Automatic annotation (TrEMBL):
<dbReference type="InterPro" id="IPR031158">
    <property type="entry name" value="GH10_AS"/>
</dbReference>
<keyword id="KW-0858">Xylan degradation</keyword>
<keyword id="KW-0624">Polysaccharide degradation</keyword>
<dbReference type="GO" id="GO:0031176">
    <property type="term" value="F:endo-1,4-beta-xylanase activity"/>
</dbReference>
<dbReference type="InterPro" id="IPR017853">
    <property type="entry name" value="GH"/>
</dbReference>
<dbReference type="Pfam" id="PF00553">
    <property type="entry name" value="CBM_2"/>
</dbReference>
<keyword id="KW-0119">Carbohydrate metabolism</keyword>
<dbReference type="InterPro" id="IPR001919">
    <property type="entry name" value="CBD2"/>
</dbReference>
<feature type="domain" description="GH10">
    <location>
        <begin position="60"/>
        <end position="352"/>
    </location>
</feature>
<feature type="compositionally biased region" description="Pro residues">
    <location>
        <begin position="359"/>
        <end position="379"/>
    </location>
</feature>
<feature type="domain" description="CBM2">
    <location>
        <begin position="375"/>
        <end position="475"/>
    </location>
</feature>
<comment type="similarity">
    <text>Belongs to the glycosyl hydrolase 10 (cellulase F) family.</text>
</comment>
<dbReference type="InterPro" id="IPR012291">
    <property type="entry name" value="CBM2_carb-bd_dom_sf"/>
</dbReference>
<feature type="region of interest" description="Disordered">
    <location>
        <begin position="354"/>
        <end position="380"/>
    </location>
</feature>
<dbReference type="GO" id="GO:0045493">
    <property type="term" value="P:xylan catabolic process"/>
</dbReference>
<dbReference type="InterPro" id="IPR001000">
    <property type="entry name" value="GH10_dom"/>
</dbReference>
<protein>
    <recommendedName>
        <fullName>Beta-xylanase</fullName>
        <ecNumber>3.2.1.8</ecNumber>
    </recommendedName>
</protein>
Length: 475
């Protein structure tokens, strides 16, 4: 099957072909396409024209200018492909294993854990200095056959043990875990999906999140789902669960929006991300791919702009690199063609990422920079703020480093830890010292911050976390 022409889904003359196209992809991708096609919005064709000295030239570097990541789902079996690996290492600063950390891959028989391929993905990410998203601890699909045959308490215990073991194996190395994947039903119910896991009791999801937090306190813990690309019954069901979790102290940090899209984007895509962010969780685009068509580049740009407009949208992951790597065979839904060439969609994403920074280079001559009610730090400087997630005996600190009126090239954040506090893990920075007066230096991929932009790093520790505002030195 070739590329879908733009407007194909709306053609009244081709109902048979529409069905055959939809039937040719797996079931839930089909419903994603139907949902998005039904409310497709023609996005403005214009893309901000950049071309400033600050516009970065790769997806990861462009996203990093505003403290975000741009990632790809990758497969261990493709890492030997030179074109694939060249694009991966050049363009992306986050990786997600497409299949290698799933239950069937990591615990093929009960209690026997195999991490060979999961570790290959992890090591690839580490070698690139990239974030690693863990995917997925519990899901009704891709369960090993032994788990499929369990139920009740035996399944609950096996599932929680699985979460504990896998999160412990990868402790301190995962940026964010999809703790639970696709637990809500499609359609208008807004209810949980029936599954063997759901039949162990409605609290299985929160039990999984608590187990994951206990095993790896530094990882952000996400709920991840599809057909949640606008305000609809399914996304509202998830919204209500997240609100309930936050009110009861169930540890959840982020919601993943898979965004397997057709040829349109719901008009309330950004508003939907924002309403989740307003609950106090990060949001991430976790499995983005968009059906080929004349609108593909615009839909990709629209998703990018939406994430850039939501301060708690921390990054975007595309579900594969080249069209030929995609699970959506024949739909050409990715940013690189089969030969590894950049597509128009790639350029639209890069421009939208770069539009998140300044549109003119910083200058010390006229005209003077506009004044704002809360002035940023002086030119060439940076500022740092800490947000703490504490519990008895430990904490995770997230530090945001913000550039002033000029871009920053390299930064060092210094702070003082209270007596009895010791750092046990650091990500996206290199620390000097782990008790008392400590400092953190940028790593290779987050030293450049555009004027007014920010990046984030984090650390975890024992005792209580820092309370005073840190200092930041640029350069
Ligand atoms: O279905 C698309 C994605 C929907 N959200 C969750 C994701 O985890 C899911 O990823 C896909 C992978 O992209 C596929 O690669 O999950 C599929 C399984 O539901 C993956 O397909 C499986 C095939 O079904 C297996 O036959 C195959 O052995 O990939 C396996 C490894 O190539």
């Amino acid at each position: 099957m070739g590329a879908l022409p733009y407007g194909f889904f709306h053609s009244p003359k081709s109902p048979q072909r529409k069905v055959s196209v939809l039937m040719s992809i797996p079931r839930h991708g089909r419903s994603a396409l139907l949902a998005t096609a039904a409310v497709s919005v023609a996005l403005a064709a214009s893309v901000a024209v950049i071309g400033t000295a600050d516009a970065a030239s790769t997806l990861g570097a462009s996203a990093a200018q505003t403290g975000r990541y741009y990632g790809a789902a990758i497969a261990a079996g493709r890492l030997g492909d030179a074109t694939y690996t060249r694009i991966l290492t050049t363009e992306f600063n986050s990786v997600t294993p497409e299949n290698e950390m799933k239950w069937d891959a990591t615990e093929p028989s009960q209690g026997r854990f195999t991490y060979t391929n999961g570790d290959r993905i992890l090591n690839q990410g580490v070698a690139m200095g990239a974030k690693v998203r863990g995917h997925a601890l519990l899901w009704h699909q891709q369960q090993p056959s032994w788990a499929q045959s369990l139920s009740g308490t035996a399944l609950r215990n096996a599932a929680i043990n699985h979460v504990t073991q896998v999160a412990t194996h990868y402790k301190g190395k995962i940026y964010a875990w999809d703790v639970v994947n696709e637990a809500f039903a499609d359609g208008g119910s807004g209810a949980r999906r029936d599954s063997n896991l759901q039949r162990t009791g409605n609290d299985w999801i929160e039990a999984a999140f608590r187990a994951a937090r206990a095993a790896d306190p530094a990882a952000k813990l996400c709920y991840n789902d599809y057909n949640t690309d606008g305000v609809n019954a399914k996304s509202t069901g998830i919204y209500n669960m997240v609100r309930d979790f936050k009110s009861r102290g169930v540890p959840i940090d982020c919601v993943g929006f898979q965004s397997h899209l057709g040829t349109g984007l719901p008009g309330d895509y950004q508003a939907n991300l924002q309403r989740f962010a307003d609950l106090g969780v990060d949001v991430q685009i976790t499995e983005l791919d968009v059906a080929q068509g004349s609108n593909q580049a615009n839909v990709y740009a629209g998703v990018t702009r939406a994430c850039m407009a939501v301060s708690r949208c921390t990054g975007i992951t595309v579900w594969g690199i080249r069209d030929s790597d995609s699970w959506r065979t024949g739909e050409n839904p990715l940013l690189f063609d089969n030969s590894g060439n950049k597509k128009a969609a790639y350029t639209s994403v890069l421009n939208a990422l770069n539009a998140g920074g300044p549109t003119t280079p910083p200058t010390t001559s006229n005209p003077p920079p506009p004044t704002t009610s809360t002035p940023p730090p002086p030119t060439g400087a940076c500022a740092a703020t800490v947000s703490l997630n504490s519990w008895t005996g430990g904490y995770v600190a997230t530090v945001r480093v913000t550039a002033g009126q000029a871009a920053v090239s390299g930064w060092t954040v210094s702070l003082s830890l209270p007596s009895g506090s010791a750092i046990t893990g650091v990500w996206s920075a290199a620390n000097t010292g782990s008790t008392g007066a400590v400092s953190f230096r940028n790593v290779s991929y987050n030293g450049q911050i555009a004027a007014g932009g920010f990046t984030e790093f984090g650390f975890q520790g024992t005792g209580s976390g820092p309370t005073a505002t840190p200092t930041c030195a640029a350069g």
